[in-house]
Amino acid sequence: MPVTNTFDQFTNELADRLQAAKKMGMSTTDISRRAADIGDWLSQQVEVKSPEQRVLKELWSVADEREQQAIASTMVKMVERHHPIR
Predict the structure, then answer these.
(1) Residue 49 to residue 32: CA distance in whole angstroms
(2) Helical residues (DSSP H) of the chain, grouped into ranges
(3) Which of 19, 49, 50, 73 matches a 20 to 30 Å C-alpha distance to 59?
(4) Phi/psi of residue 47, each to 5°?
(5) Domains of the chain
(6) Contact partners, residue 9, CB within 8 Å, separation at least 6
(7) Distance (Å, rounded) from C-alpha 45 to C-alpha 24?
């Protein structure tokens, strides 16, 4: 997944990936679990490019595993709300 510079680009990319995953038959729960795995990778490997990404990275770094899953699930819900699946 490309790393984008703006939060809008970031959420648009997430929406595209979410739509593709749902078309492949993945449940929202499975998608949220996968989002948490990706969150781990992003927090360790990707340079922050926007203030929003910095906040997410900081939240992720202080959260325990349960809280990270909640962050990932919340991001999925946010993307679903702002980018309805077509």
Answers:
(1) 23
(2) 7-23, 28-45, 51-62, 65-82
(3) 19
(4) -70, 135
(5) 7-81 (1.10.760.20)
(6) none
(7) 27
